[in-house]
Amino acid sequence: MTEQSNRWMDQAKRWDENQKVINQMLQDIQALVCKRDSTLGALGARWGLHAEQSFRNALRGILEDSFGVQVLNVVEFDDEGEVFGYPDQVELDLIVKDGRLIICEIKSSMSRADMYAFDRKIKFYQKRHQRQADRALVISPMIDDSARQVAQKLGIQVYSYAEEVDPTQY
After folding, report:
1. Does 59 reside within a domain?
2. Burial status of residue 48 (CB atoms within 10 A of its CB: 0-12, 13-18, 19 or more)
3. Distance, CA of 39 to CA of 76 (rounded, Å)
4. Same domain for 81 and 155?
5. Is residue 88 situated within a structural domain?
6. pTM: predicted TM-score of the whole model, two decimal places
């Protein structure tokens, strides 16, 4: 073997070793990205649940203490699977004043599918309690445009950004 061939073989060996190191580094980076995404997702979900409960508590405190309005968090079991397609519990927030019933959905974000699920929850409650809701509304800081279109089609009022609320509407 010539000296040039030996150099080429040594160089090829170093390239292979470097490639293995680079591939391992890429795998490590991908694992870190997945871990970060998973951690952020868990934190976001936890924050969303806590934010929803905080808002629900504030709504209850303000409306009940200042305006004599009853605010209820109702959890019922849907044995027939009318809402989700299989038996599961259904959670709704209700606001009751002078016989008027408002059914609310308080969520950290709402998608198109969430809006349809909320509509099924409303129908489930109305059927089970033989009582028509006077209003249905969603309170959420993040609502997809497609979810807004569904809400409009279904007659669900949406409260999201402060700039979007028209105080003269009601």
Report:
1. no
2. middle
3. 32
4. yes
5. yes
6. 0.69
